[in-house]
Design a protein that fits this description.
Strand order of the largest sheet: 3-2-1-4-5-7-11
Helix content: 40-55%
Shape: globular
Distance between the termini: 41 Å
Strand content: 15-25%
């Protein structure tokens, strides 16, 4: 089987994708700044800002997955993301590797109604403008025939083992394990789409093995209709055997917290995702591959079971 290379191999999505690839006996190369030895895969160190290191990491690959996450700071994104994307595009072109780019949805900005693959880019944040720029950079190469690639998009995650990179993991499940009330940003009474992490991992595997999927944008599986925050927490409380009372963190408080927390300061411009309905459609993928996303009931139960068994505050 061909070599599948994961750029950003220590992240949440890479950890979920790796078992999917292993079941098919692929050769796997894991690439990160601080590589970890993983049975059944080769691990190498590379800084994706370093062109030579990116070329070395990509050489010999059949498929490359760009899964990297960088410091959550708009200025860092402005400086680093275009360099990373250009390095990866050029390396894939040189070695004729196909690229699967795991993207987010910041480029769409605040949208009234469902967010689909046809939704125009109208970023309402600095980070959204960066994401729009790198998506357009890759799309132009895809349209010109310079590279075979997929842009695969997801919203925020939750799931077994997903804690630090997940608002639901930190605010809901981790708090409940500690015996505290769950927390929610700004408005728990509007619907808010999430991805249950095993579903997009399976979807990436499916897409990467379908030649017809390349040259397109795909939204990764997310249940519709989306639950409100309060509905989500009610199910979580049932399986965590705790109260479903919620502590709502208002927008003004998040502003104050941002004075002391660099992460919260950077996250403030994304608050529209919690203040208004945030509805993400993956119907294109579901119809094409007859894929049914894991139900909220099953997904939240599995996540709750993991937190009760494995999470240690």
């Amino acid at each position: 089987m061909g070599l599948h290379t994961l750029l950003g191999a220590n992240g949440t999505i890479a950890n979920a994708l790796l078992p999917e690839l292993k079941t098919q006996n692929h050769q796997i190369r894991l690439v990160s700044r601080s590589p970890k030895e993983v049975p059944g895969a080769d691990s190498i160190a590379a800084n994706l800002l370093n062109r030579a290191q990116v070329f070395k990491a990509v050489e010999g690959s059949e498929i490359v997955y760009l899964l990297v996450g960088i410091t959550y700071n708009a200025k860092v994104w402005e400086a680093e993301w275009p360099v990373i994307m250009q390095n990866v595009i050029d390396a894939c072109k040189k070695f004729q590797a196909k690229l699967v780019f795991f993207d987010n949805v910041y480029m769409y900005g605040k949208v009234d109604g469902l967010i689909t693959e046809e939704t125009p880019y109208r970023p309402s944040s600095n980070k959204g403008r960066v994401r729009a720029g790198i998506a357009e950079m890759l799309w132009k190469e895809m349209q010109s025939g310079g590279i075979k690639a997929i842009i695969a998009r997801a919203v925020d995650f939750y799931g077994p083992g997903v804690v630090d990179k997940s608002a639901a993991g930190i605010l809901v499940f981790a708090n409940m394990v500690k015996g505290k009330r769950a927390q929610w940003f700004i408005n728990p009474d509007v619907p808010r789409s999430y991805n249950y992490i095993p579903d997009p991992a399976r979807a990436l595997d499916i897409l990467s093995h379908d030649e017809n999927a390349f040259g397109q944008v795909w939204h990764l599986p997310s249940v519709q209709p989306a639950l409100t925050g309060r509905q989500f927490m009610k199910i979580a409380a049932k399986y965590m055997s705790t109260t479903d009372k919620v502590l709502v963190l208002p927008k003004w408080l998040l502003k104050i917290v941002g004075w002391f927390s660099p992460f919260m300061r950077e996250a403030y411009e994304m608050n529209y995702q919690d203040e208004y309905p945030f509805l993400f459609s993956s119907s294109k993928f579901e119809k094409e591959y007859e894929f049914v996303p894991t139900s909220y009931e099953e997904a939240i139960k599995t996540t709750a079971d993991w937190f009760k068994q494995h999470y240690r505050p």
